[in-house]
Amino acid sequence: MPEEEEDGFDELMRLQQQFTRQQEDQAAQERQREEQGKKVQGVLQGLKDLNISMAVQQLKNVAPPELIAQVSALGQQEGTDDLRKMITGLADEMETRLTKPPADKSSESPLVDRMRTLSILIDLYFSLHS
After folding, report:
1. pTM
2. What HEC string does 46-73 produce?
3. Model confidence pLDDT, tens digit, residues 50-75
């Protein structure tokens, strides 16, 4: 009988060690997943910053400084609501100018710049959503 108790105790110790090893393995895997998640978030933020930087460079030739500042600030924000609002506002402004054309043709150049600006912002919007 004492030998059976000893075998049972040995089995219990073996199971406890196995359980402890499994817990340690699971904890290590969880730490690894968290580290990978942080790396992925860093890469995604880097891509977002790059896309915004490229858009700002393109906008410098066609957009007013206030709009460029707004686009630059997008890198620090979550989501794309502000960008969507910029696009909508610009599209509304262009629609108004097209439905009520000015008497002189000298204002057509700014309209072309607005169209280019809108195109750049739409490209940025879709690059941030993919």
Report:
1. 0.69
2. HHHHHHHHHHHHHHCCCCCHHHHHHHHH
3. 999 999 999 999 999 999 999 999 98
